[in-house]
Amino acid sequence: MSIVAIVREVSASFDRALASVAPDPPIDVARARAQHAAYVAALRTAGAEVVVLPAEDALPDACFVEDCAVVAGGAALIARPGAASRRDEPPAVRAALAARLPVHDMAAPATLDGGDCLLLGLRLYIGRSSRTNAEGIARARAVFAEVGVEVIEVAVGASLHLKSVCSPLGEDAVLIAEGALPPRTFGAARVLTVPEPPAANVVVIGSHALIPAGFPSAARAVASAGLTPHAIDNSELRKADSALTCLSILLG
Predict the structure, then answer these.
(1) Quick one: which of 117, 138, 202, 207 is 20 to 30 A from 168 by CA?
(2) CATH assignment at residue 94
(3) Range 138-155 average pLDDT
(4) What's the whole-number mean pLDDT along residues 182-205?
(5) Phi, psi of 210, rounded to the nearest 5 degrees
(6) Could you tell me the pTM of the whole model?
(7) Sheet with 150-155, edge to edge strand ranges
(8) What is the CA radius of gyration of the chain?
(9) Based on the structure, what is the number of domains in the chain?
(10) pLDDT 10s digits, 88-108
(11) Three state DSSP letters for the chain
């Protein structure tokens, strides 16, 4: 089955994107756009069909499409981002998803960011974080139960999102930053560890894995899982508290 990746171009206002610590030096939008273009090219090299949504300059964080929806079991749940400034991002993503699969919506007071959601087979692990609340997890549980996907709540701790410290390596393995989560968080899934949180976030497409450049531990980990690593420089994009999975929604 072919993989479709939905991405969104970097806004001209990206230098005003949310960040837990003010970047120093400030975000260079042109450099961020070049890194995003390299990411899109790598998705295509890995075999994905890429759907590129246009930038929305009034929404600085809009390139982080992952937070706008969760896809599992052939259905999509349109998220309600935990950051109020991002609440206008989902409609364009919803339209792209609705052309391909059934979509469900979420209403206040529920909040959920896709960066808190990690799918392993028919289990969807959702981090309870500052961006995702109990009502958001309950809505996800109700939606995905209809398509046979079990939702399991995970305590995130101090991390912004669950996938700030981990990511799936296929359907039965997960990559985790050392010490970030209890060893049995993901049940019987095979666990591979890396020392740095940024190295724990990778994008797997078939036998390929997009990994953050500058982290040899990520390359070693994905290679040990039988995947071919493709290093992507996301250093400028990462200044806005992001990681590689933030930049796409994968279908298929």
Answers:
(1) 138
(2) 3.75.10.10
(3) 98
(4) 96
(5) -85, 125
(6) 0.97
(7) 117-120, 123-128, 150-155
(8) 16
(9) 1
(10) 999 999 999 999 999 999 999
(11) CCCEEEEECCCCCHHHCCCCCCCCCCCCHHHHHHHHHHHHHHHHHCCCEEEEECCCCCCCCCCCHHHHEEEECCEEEECCCCCHHHCCCHHHHHHHHHCCCCEECCCCCCCCCHHHEEEECCEEEEEECCCCCHHHHHHHHHHHHCCCCEEEEEECCCCCCHHHCEEECCCCEEEEECCCCCCCCCCCCEEEEECCHHHHCCEEECCEEEEECCCHHHHHHHHHCCCEEEEECCCCHHHHCCCHHHHCEEEC
For the annotated catalytic residues, the residue numbers are 161, 246
Distances from the Cα of 152 to the Cα of 70, 182, 212, 219, angstroms:
14, 14, 27, 29
Residues 6+ apart with CB under 8 A from 109: 133, 135
102 lies in which domain range? 4-251
Q: Which residue type occupies 119? A: L
Please report, as a single letter, which amino acid is at residue 243: A
Cβ contact 189:174 at 8 Å? yes
Tell me the average pLDDT across 220-231: 97
The pLDDT of residue 183: 83
- φ/ψ of residue 239, rounded to 5: -65, -20
> What is the per-residue pLDDT across 21-72, written as a single tens digit (0 to 9) for each?
999 999 999 999 999 999 999 999 999 999 999 999 999 999 999 999 999 9
Let me know: does 179 contact 166? Beta carbons within 8 Å. no
